[in-house]
Design brief:
This protein has 86 residues and is of the alpha/beta class. It has one domain. It contains two helices and four strands. The longest helix has 18 residues. 15% of the residues are buried.
Length: 86
């Protein structure tokens, strides 16, 4: 079952939240792989007008470098708009 945090047909988007560790290169890589698969596999189960994904990473309490944040955004930019909650 695929359940986003929110679906907004008016905005044409669905929202996912990721509470993943991004403090190591390996953790960031695994998170990107997981979220890419989550988005691509979940999209067909949503209304057709909700095709854009907004992915919010909750990294409060973590020491995440700007290069890591940039890398995650770059690697997911083709499937989602990525935001970071600090």
């Amino acid at each position: 079952m695929f359940t986003p945090e929110m679906v907004s047909p008016e905005l044409g988007e669905f929202v996912l939240v990721a509470n993943h560790s991004l403090e190591s290169t390996e953790a960031a890589r695994l998170s990107v792989e997981y979220n890419r698969a989550r988005i691509l596999n979940g999209r067909p189960h949503l209304p057709s007008e909700s095709w854009k994904c907004r992915l919010v990473y909750d990294v409060r309490g973590q020491s995440v470098s700007e290069p890591t944040i940039d890398q995650v955004r770059t690697q997911l930019c083709d499937v989602a708009t990525v935001e970071f909650k600090r």
